[in-house]
Amino acid sequence: LWYLDILINVLIITIFGLISCSSSATKSYDLKGCFIISMVGGVYDIPSAILWCLASLSILNFNGFFASLFLVFTWISNLFAMQSLNFLGIYLAFEMQSLCLLVLGKITANENQRWFAYRGLLKYLVLSLIAGSIFIFHASSSYLQSGVMISDSLVTYVFLLFKLGVAPFHMYTLELFSVVSRHVAFVFSTLPKLSVLYLISNSNIGSECVWWGLISLWLGSISQYQSVFVRSILLYSSVAEIGLVLLVLQEGFSWEAFSWVSIYFLSLSGVWHANSKFVSAISVASIAGLPPFLGFIGKAQILKSLVSINLGILIFSSILAATISFIGYLRLIRLMYLVSPVKWKNNKDSSFINWSTWMLTVGTLPMVYSV
Hints:
Layout: H1 2-20, H2 28-38, H3 46-59, H4 65-82, H5 87-107, H6 114-146, H7 154-164, H8 174-179, H9 182-201, H10 208-226, H11 230-248, H12 255-272, H13 277-288, H14 294-309, H15 312-339, H16 350-362, H17 365-369
């Protein structure tokens, strides 16, 4: 009963934090460490280990007890979503995730952009509620007819793709992505997507993944090529890279896919979290798939998996789309490093974050070579 152990540990830390949050003697960094240690009990396989790494890196960047608390609840909801076997568990886990992300975005909203952040978060909540209502209505109707709570219908897949943020469902995140803080944007870009990819990889969606993957890959690459803002390029980059992963998941669970997902997400943390322009530029180069960086190995494994499927058109399409998106990555490096370098906020955890990002990225090498 590992989930009971996690809930008890988080409950104890929460009670301690609520009692001592008004005391200046207790440091928020100590509570962050307690949260990170308590989440170790949820690591039972490689996808859950990646989820723990991403959540731990995110916790280190938030200030305050309540921001860390709601981030842990977001991690718990994604962990339960990965273990859900029926539509009711999936619905409850993702609705809990949406509410936690909403509160997290509100807590960390910038004073100058607070009302814009509220509007973006409200749109995200309304659209999530509409999608969840349609999904639970259809799943409940299927349950009344068949008596089975496991739903493998098209509506379930569309709901998962909506939560994944693939094209054309990425449009509702455009405004949200531009007004929330960069640390919250990283959480929106990683944690929810990993749990959805895990669910899709264990489903029977089959060849439908190819069409969604191709649409996302090409729309994300072309939009990334045309974008001139840092956050827009990163958003469309996420759409394109997730589309590339969906091409491989048509055959079910794939180590190549999750190897690239881990490399992409951990490199993305170097873009959002690092306080060094050099670290951010190298992380972007890794996402672009330039040799000799780790991202090149991940994308090579994806192409190797597409070769094994014997679909030459997918290989040609992936290489061409990657070439188009590469121009967007070069523009991103130029925007961050040459034209208007981002003034990262220096904090006491910044050096540890840089070190953790590189160590965790290099730590995925055994997983990649074991495929």
